[in-house]
Amino acid sequence: MKQSIGAKPLAFPTPAWVVGTYDMNGKPNAMTVAWAGICCSNPPCISVSLRKATYSYAGIVENKAFTVSIPSEVFVREADYFGIASGKDENKFECASLTPVRSELVPAPYVGEFPVVLECKLLHSLEVGLHTMFVGEIMDIKAEEYVLDENGNPDIERIKPVIYGTGNKSYYSIGRNLGKAFYIGKMS
């Protein structure tokens, strides 16, 4: 029998994405978010939710753009750091020994060492309680060659993305492949 545990921000899995912005002085900044995901397929869009108190919030509002860099497992420490430190107080890229790369399509930086990046133009923002949900149209996805499959798409098993467990506030890796979507559920 299921037991009620109350209303909580709990869903599985949630990503550990690093959102890149420029501050008002053009300094690259990044922060880790877990309240995020795909929100539309046409046009291709993602949403990320940030509190107004974050330094990155102002960067998104000012530049009307952001990037999402997807860290692989080997960068879990750096991804966590981007969520702990504030760009107000320090240069996060420098402290993490990572490279800010200027997007050619949107006024926002991304993490050069992370295998996949989404470059997004801000389409909408919606106040949702403590957070503001920013919807960004994906203008381009850039991926390292080594994470691409035979069809030229990013392969989750090659990327080895970091996911976040909201209940116990821990990071996880992706598990094994369970089957092909839109196929294994066919009940012939």
Automatic annotation (TrEMBL):
<dbReference type="GO" id="GO:0010181">
    <property type="term" value="F:FMN binding"/>
</dbReference>
<dbReference type="InterPro" id="IPR002563">
    <property type="entry name" value="Flavin_Rdtase-like_dom"/>
</dbReference>
<feature type="domain" description="Flavin reductase like">
    <location>
        <begin position="10"/>
        <end position="164"/>
    </location>
</feature>
<dbReference type="Pfam" id="PF01613">
    <property type="entry name" value="Flavin_Reduct"/>
</dbReference>
<protein>
    <submittedName>
        <fullName>Flavin reductase family protein</fullName>
    </submittedName>
</protein>
<comment type="similarity">
    <text>Belongs to the flavoredoxin family.</text>
</comment>
<dbReference type="InterPro" id="IPR052174">
    <property type="entry name" value="Flavoredoxin"/>
</dbReference>
<keyword id="KW-0285">Flavoprotein</keyword>
<dbReference type="InterPro" id="IPR012349">
    <property type="entry name" value="Split_barrel_FMN-bd"/>
</dbReference>
